[in-house]
């Protein structure tokens, strides 16, 4: 049995996540997701999760490509998981191909295959956040415009009386 693992925040589970999980699952018999736990502090230098770990866990649990979810807090935990679980493949987004990342050296030394998943889409948690923010701003602007029209109509009605 080929066991694979993929690590991430999986905030606001979206199409890009699902495609990566599907791609990973197609290349192994059993897929473990290492889920970064702490959404209340900064997870990376530029990213703070919008959803709690429980919300993210439940969404992943409902994904048919995921066989097991193991929460982790730190890069040390990530390394411990790689060292203690019988992993055959580590799935990492292709954007990390030229970067150093936690577990890379261990996988190379131990013969764990590193598989770079393709980023075939424009979806990301950040783009989803921006889209929602834009829609909310549009909605507020529309409400403001309607209120202004109503106010002007009322003022005009008073003048005509």
Description of the molecule:
The chain has 161 residues and is an alpha/beta fold. The chain folds into 2 domains: 3-117, HUPs (Rossmann fold); 124-160. It is built from 5 helices and 5 strands; from the N terminus they run βαβαβαβαβα. The chain has a 5-stranded parallel sheet. The radius of gyration is 22 Å and the shape is elongated.
Task: Provide keyphrases for this structure.
single chain, 161 residues, alpha/beta, Rossmann fold, 2 domains, five-stranded parallel sheet, 17% strand, nucleotidyltransferase, Cyt_trans-like, Archaeal_FAD_synthase
CATH class of the largest domain: Alpha Beta
Structural class: alpha/beta
What's the Cα radius of gyration? Answer: 22 Å
Contiguous helical run count: 5
CATH architecture of the largest domain: 3-Layer(aba) Sandwich
Report the principal-axis shape: elongated
Q: Tell me about the biggest sheet?
A: 5 strands, parallel
Number of domains: 2
Strands in their spatial order, largest beta sheet: 3-2-1-4-5
Q: Gap between N and C termini, in Å?
A: 83 Å
Domain Cytidyltransferase-like: 6-101
Pfam family, one: CTP_transf_like
GO molecular function, one term: nucleotidyltransferase activity
Keywords: Nucleotidyltransferase, Transferase
